[in-house]
Request: fold
Amino acid sequence: AQSVTQPDIHITVSEGASLELRCNYSYGATPYLFWYVQSPGQGLQLLLKYFSGDTLVQGIKGFEAEFKRSQSSFNLRKPSVHWSDAAEYFCAVASWSNSNSGYALNFGKGTSLLVTP
Amino acid sequence: GAVVSQHPSWVICKSGTSVKIECRSLDFQATTMFWYRQFPKQSLMLMATSNEGSKATYEQGVEKDKFLINHASLTLSTLTVTSAHPEDSSFYICSARVLGSTGALVPSGEQFFGPGTRLTVL
Reply:
C-alpha cells in the first residue's frame, strides 16, 4: 500500500539558515508527489509538485524539492528561511483509487517548522 | 484561479445538534470534492469523496449516517455532522479536484483546498 513518511515531527532553524524537510514514499508506480504548507488555522497551500521530467522542482516562496527514485525520497529545501516560513509542512502522494475512480492524496503526518531569530 | 471557500470558518454548537459546512469552488467547476478531518498536530485524514450528482464514497471507519455529504452542484458540496458530540470536534477541510483543459481528470490528482472549518462541540 502506498504511504508517505515524514521522519521529522519538529524542526527548528534560525532565520536565514538553510532548510531541508524529509519525505519518503512507498508506491509501486511512478508517484505524483506534492508538498503543501499549512499555517495555523488555515487550509493547505500547494508549494510544489512533481509529475515527471526534471527531478528538481521549483515551487513558490523560494522552495524546491528533489525527486530521488533510488531513495524513494522527495525532500523539500529552501536556501534561506524567513520567519514567515514557520508552519506545518505536509508531503503527499497521489495514488489511484478504484473506489473514487480517480486519484486520491495520501498525506504524511507533517513536519512542524519553527524559525528562531 | 482555483479558489475554494468554506463556510463557516468556525462553529461552536451544543452536543446533539447538527452542523452543516459548505464547500464552494469559486472560479471553477469541481465534479469531485473531498472532505478531510484533521486533529490537532496531526495529518489530514480523508473522510469521503463527493461526486456531483451521485452518492459520496466514504473511507473505511467513517460513519456515513453521521457525516452526511451532498454534492448538489458543480460548485457546492456540503458536509453535515449529525447529532454532534464532543468527539466530533475537529478541523474539517474540503478540497476540489480540477479537471484538465480537455475535460479529463488531471492525472496528477492535484487538489485545491479550502481554508477549513473549526468545529467545537460543547
User: Anything to note?
Assistant: Confidence is low (pLDDT under 50) at residues 101-105 of chain B. Chain B touches chain A at residues 4, 6, 32, 34, 41-44, 46, 49, 57, 91, 93, 95, 97, 105, 107-116, 118 (CB under 8 Å). The two ends of chain B are 37 Å apart (CA to CA).
